[in-house]
Specification:
2 copies of one chain form a homodimer. Chain A is α/β, with parallel strands linked by helices. Chain A folds into 3 domains: 1-87, Winged helix-like DNA-binding domain superfamily/Winged helix DNA-binding domain (Arc Repressor Mutant, subunit A, Orthogonal Bundle); 89-162 and 265-295, Periplasmic binding protein-like II (D-Maltodextrin-Binding Protein, domain 2); 165-263, D-Maltodextrin-Binding Protein, domain 2 (3-Layer(aba) Sandwich). Helix content of chain A is 43%, strand content 21%. Chain A contains 10 helices and 12 strands. Chain A has a 5-stranded mixed beta sheet with strand order 4-3-5-12-6, with helices on both faces. Chain A has a 3-stranded antiparallel beta sheet with strand order 10-7-11, with helices on one face. In chain A, α5 links the parallel β3 (92-98) and β4. The radius of gyration of chain A is 24 Å and the shape is elongated. The structure holds a DNA duplex (30 and 30 nucleotides). Chains A, B: One of its GO terms (molecular function) is DNA binding. Chains A, B: This is LysR family transcriptional regulator. Chains A, B: It comes from Methylobacterium oryzae CBMB20. Chains A, B: Pfam families: HTH_1, LysR_substrate. Chains A, B: Keywords: DNA-binding, Transcription, Transcription regulation.
Chain lengths: 298, 298
DNA sequence: GCCCCCGTTGCCGAAGATGCAACGACACGC
DNA sequence: GCGTGTCGTTGCATCTTCGGCAACGGGGGC
């Protein structure tokens, strides 16, 4: 919006770290930018940037002002979304940061369902681990975060919280696939394992449980990609450990929950940034997602 | 601030109810205004005003947008205040809506004390009854409200809450002034009364108590001005009823609390609008006021 | 000492905002 | 029914503001 042009210049200079770089990103000349900044600093009665030989950096006053700008832009987005919603056609944009476990089933299905009702709403889905997800929320890069094992953070405002038990995942021909129902963890450890690597919360959760028993984990394959692990499981007699929400419907795959005596369920949370008010689109999508999660998680 | 110029036009048109009246207040021509409004509506993709024969009125979208503007302006004020506070000299502005009872002693003393520490801070003190005070807060015309008998309102966020017992106020020569300590209400009713009128919460409080006893109040003088009542009490053998915080130190005046069996204490509240963040100046003044009120009210 | 990147400034053209005058629409009073 | 006043709006001229261009001075790195 026009009236925010000047102030977004400030945000861009802060981000770029120098007037010249910011000018380039904004398709402006440095002179135009430096003037806008100076005018603004005059209006505020105080500089908001430190002039360093290698560029510009926000000072304390600038930090306050930059935060104000960010809030203002976000709030305007929210208002525009509310206004669009008044006219019946819901427009808007939803930005979601989620754990890898959810990109297989939950999120694509829900986005599809939502977009079937409101085709004018755009989506942006980023895969992030739990720490990155919080960062994305705080930087206003994501409206919502759907993550496993959320880190304790005052900035996180949960919209849904539930639990899911990890499942042993194998192909139908696997020895353990002859039975259904819970399986003991020690039975799994006797077979070849294909596990998520340490970039994923699932792995930490398993190791945390085994550490107390003094058992060491010796996976034959580990990967940061749950999809890769599943594809591997289809080809070999391997066992992977994944959460039910992330396991696709596939007759070639068999999954059995790990016995609750061996592994506590993982926490699954849908959250937004505390104190931020969501756009209509994001709020409604969150509502829908909560309904789904209530079906899937305990 | 420059970048808010356009949007404040909207606020002014909404307030004035017509482009022409708003233009006059803004020292602009109607043509300039109508264009700005049109541009903004184009940017938003929807009209925000209803065009009526007798002027302009905000529509639903406009209400949302106007609220956004109001919030932004208030937030910018807060940020500027915080920035000013960084430099050591506290600047800013505090706007207080208070009951008449407090303009005699409490508020002038506290304003003086505050301004002695921070001379750069300006004050605006409006006398409002409890209903008007809430309105003033909600319209962002006041940062703080210091009122008696606050109406139940979800918009009110109390920063302090206490009680004060009404006092019988008389001149030193009055028959009841020979004693100190609590006085029964029926003893007061036997003398000529000069009471606050129905525009003041004190009067309602008294009548509420008497109504349960079936006693009717027959004041010989009533007034909306507590100061007038005090001045009258100095000249005649009259009894007035006022709260201790509003009674000035004066050897010619004598006051005795009403017995607690006859009259419950009045509630005294310092409040802000819920969800609004105060400027540094207002927040610090509120802190100071709370300290004082803790000394005066139970 | 040289080079590169930095922010800044004077000057000029382009874009935007504003004022002036006039138009059409509607409400109100006679 | 018909002026009259007020309303928002529009075409055109004017003025302010914004941006681009080129050049300057300053500081870090080699």
């Amino acid at each position: 919006m026009k009236h925010l042009r000047t102030v977004t210049y400030v945000a861009e200079v802060a981000r770029a770290g120098s007037i010249r770089r910011a000018a380039e990103r904004l398709n402006l000349t440095p002179s135009a930018l430096t003037r806008q900044i100076q005018d603004l600093e005059y209006e505020l009665g105080t500089p908001i940037f430190e002039r360093l030989p290698q560029g510009m950096r926000l000072n304390a006053a600038g930090e306050l002002f930059a935060r104000h700008i960010r809030d203002q832009v976000a709030d305007l987005d929210r208002v525009r979304s509310q206004i669009a919603d008044l006219s019946g056609v819901r427009r808007g944009h939803v930005s979601l940061a989620c754990s890898q476990a959810f990109v297989t089933q939950v999120v694509p299905e829900e986005v599809e369902a939502y977009r079937a009702r409101f085709p004018q709403v755009g989506f942006m889905v980023q895969v992030r681990d739990h720490a990155q997800a919080v960062t994305a929320l705080a930087a206003f890069e994501a409206d919502l975060a759907l993550i496993l094992q959320p880190p304790p953070s005052a900035e996180l405002h949960p919209l849904f919280s539930g639990h899911q038990t990890l499942c042993a995942l194998m192909r139908t021909g696997h020895p353990l696939a002859s039975e259904t129902g819970p399986v003991r963890l020690r039975d799994c450890l006797g077979h070849a394992l294909a596990l998520p690597d340490h970039s994923l919360a699932i792995r930490h959760h398993i190791e945390h449980a085994l550490a107390r028993r003094g058992v060491e984990l010796r996976p034959v394959v580990e990967s940061g990609s749950l999809e890769f692990l599943r594809n591997l499981v289809l080809r070999e007699d391997l066992i992977s450990l994944q959460i039910p929400s992330g396991i696709p419907q596939d007759p070639r795959l068999h999954s059995r929950p790990i016995d609750l005596r061996d592994l506590t369920p993982m926490t699954l949370v849908l959250a937004q940034l505390r104190g931020r008010s969501l756009s209509v689109a994001a709020a409604k999508f969150a509502d829908q997602l909560v309904v789904r999660l209530n079906r899937e998680a305990v």
